[in-house]
Backbone:
């Protein structure tokens, strides 16, 4: 028996996508290699390592950080980080006073050019509902207990604007290089469901 005979049946969405792809390819509207290239790009080449590099630079370069907070779209586009699902970017900074959390209550809008494709939990209904109803409780589920005095601010992404959290730079990282700092910036810390930490 071949491997393919054991595959799970395709979902309705998968079937529709496949049907559309076949039709568009057949009609010469799209070319399969181009499509494969786009999928490969977002699945394998773009990912949280890009966001981590941006955060590490912001932590070490005050002028870059100021520009990033002022106009993220332009500053990121300068670095080549723009395109599908990320041409209008806003970077929000975590401080002792404010912790930012990003959600898309309608679907799964996410800043592709800097974080890649969203994780499954980001797309789930419970996550999207709880982020609004009980953000502090949601963060606790992610293992993040914030001090009372830290306010939680929730940002609802949409087709227009995508948010990236600039996590707090942890204490004890004063002597670390930009490259070393990159390593401690997790995907979750840039969505706001985690923090950058030395203990990983
Ligand atoms: Fe969405």
Residues:
């Amino acid at each position: 028996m071949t491997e393919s005979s054991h595959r799970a049946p395709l979902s309705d969405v998968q079937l529709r996508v496949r049907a559309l792809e076949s039709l568009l390819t057949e009609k010469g509207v799209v070319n399969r290699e181009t499509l494969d290239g786009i999928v490969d790009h977002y699945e394998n080449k773009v990912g949280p390592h890009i966001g981590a590099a941006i955060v590490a630079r912001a932590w070490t370069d005050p002028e870059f950080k100021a520009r990033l907070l002022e106009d993220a779209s332009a500053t990121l586009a300068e670095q080549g980080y723009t395109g599908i699902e990320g041409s209008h970017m806003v970077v929000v900074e975590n401080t002792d006073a404010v912790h930012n959390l990003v959600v898309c209550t309608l679907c799964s809008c996410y800043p592709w050019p800097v974080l890649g494709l969203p994780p499954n939990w980001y797309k789930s209904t419970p996550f999207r509902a709880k982020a609004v109803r009980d953000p502090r409780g949601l963060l606790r589920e992610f293992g993040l207990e914030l001090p009372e005095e830290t306010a939680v601010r929730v940002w609802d992404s949409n087709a227009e604007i995508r948010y990236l959290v600039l996590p707090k730079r942890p204490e004890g990282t004063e002597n670390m290089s930009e490259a070393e700092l990159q390593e401690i910036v997790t995907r979750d810390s840039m969505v706001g469901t985690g923090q950058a930490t030395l203990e990983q």
About this structure: The chain has eleven helices and four strands.
